[in-house]
Specification:
Radius of gyration: 26 Å
Strand content: 5-15%
Structural class: alpha+beta
Number of domains: 2
CATH superfamily of the largest domain: Multidrug efflux transporter AcrB transmembrane domain
CATH topology of the largest domain: Multidrug efflux transporter AcrB transmembrane fold
CATH architecture of the largest domain: Up-down Bundle
Shape: elongated
Number of helices: 10
Strand order of the largest sheet: 3-4-2-5
CATH class of the largest domain: Mainly Alpha
Largest sheet: 4 strands, antiparallel
Helix content: over 70%
Number of strands: 6
Length: 330
């Protein structure tokens, strides 16, 4: 172990925390600025604020599918063009905050702000003028109270995931490892929310799903490093703990980088070819994979060492107190 190569990661603890803190302060600062100016602090989607969902069957889309089948055109390209066309129509008539999705049944789902019966009729009339014959299959309205309830449930889901993952890491390793993982996960969640704040990305149920996916990816990376630390502790008990953690990070570094590059390439392909429906989701995931990799190396490991040092100092102090008590008794 003496001749092992390693990066000096733990020695630069304050640098890693400072980088994260600056980024988070920018995001939180923007949220504060919007709050002062009586604007929404985050771009909450219809799922959380309430709105109207419309399910349509458009003949023009069905006709294009028939032509595509004969000419071997890409169905995905047709869907992307139709979504783009509908989005342009909606934006021209004041329905800019809308999400559009095409289902596997060749039906179109439009989610927009809460519409009155008159507004919905006007929207359908505009779409029929621009797209041709269409049929309204279903129309539902999500009230603000339901959106608030959904937002609260999403928050509780995230909290339960944090607690469950910390308990798992603590059980598999030890308390300092669990605390390091917990700080890393909280860091990832806050950083992703700050990213959404900076670029005003829509916060909806898919955003929550993206955060949960990011947490899963991040904890997987963290476990790989922690597992190597535990193995090295068994074989090199006399090695300085900070150096041993640095060596463990170095040993898993190539595996971490290879994994993240592979995942980012897939996400990049989804961003380019996946269409507007999943673009926001993939952008958040793209950032989350980067920040999750960063946190597993520079936040989780550093935090684990800090808690381990604290626990070691507490154990030494407790031992000294016990020794002094024994001396007094004698």
């Amino acid at each position: 172990m003496e001749q092992q190569k390693y990066f000096k990661i733990i020695e630069k603890t304050y640098l890693w925390f400072a980088i994260s803190l600056v980024f988070m302060l920018v995001g939180i600062g923007l949220m504060g600025f919007r709050f002062i100016n009586q604007q929404p602090i985050l771009n909450f989607g219809i799922d959380f604020t309430g709105g109207t969902s419309i399910l349509l069957k458009v003949d023009a889309l069905s006709n294009e599918y028939v032509v595509a089948k004969k000419t071997h055109q890409s169905i995905n390209a047709i869907n992307v063009n139709m979504i783009k066309k509908i989005r342009e129509i909606l934006e021209q008539d004041g329905f800019s905050k809308s999400t559009i999705q095409i289902t596997s049944n060749k039906e179109i789902i439009i989610r927009t702000t809460t519409l009155t019966n008159e507004s919905r009729s006007r929207l359908l009339e505009i779409l029929q003028q621009k797209l041709g014959n269409l049929e309204l299959l279903e129309s539902d309205t999500i009230g603000p109270s339901f959106g608030t309830e959904l937002r609260e449930k999403s928050l509780w889901i995230l909290i339960l995931v944090f607690v469950a993952l910390m308990i798992y890491i603590t059980w598999r390793f030890e308390f300092s490892f669990g605390m390091g993982a917990l700080i890393s996960l909280v860091h990832d969640a806050i950083a992703t929310i700050c990213f959404a704040s900076i670029f005003f990305i829509e916060i909806d149920t898919s955003f929550v799903a993206a955060i949960l996916t990011i947490l899963g990816y991040s904890i997987n990376d963290t476990i790989v490093i922690f597992d190597r630390v535990r193995e090295n502790l068994k074989t090199s008990k006399k090695e300085d703990f900070i150096k041993l953690v640095n060596i463990s990070i170095y040993q898993t570094f190539s595996r971490t980088i290879n994994t993240v590059i592979t995942v980012l390439l897939v996400l990049l392909a989804l961003m380019v070819f996946g269409g507007t429906t999943i673009k926001g989701f993939t952008i958040v995931l793209f950032f989350g994979v980067i920040i999750g990799t960063y946190s597993s190396i520079f936040i989780a490991s550093v935090s684990m060492v800090l808690f381990n040092n604290f626990a070691t100092k507490q154990a030494i102090i407790k031992q000294e107190i016990n020794n002094n008590l024994k001396k007094k008794k004698k």
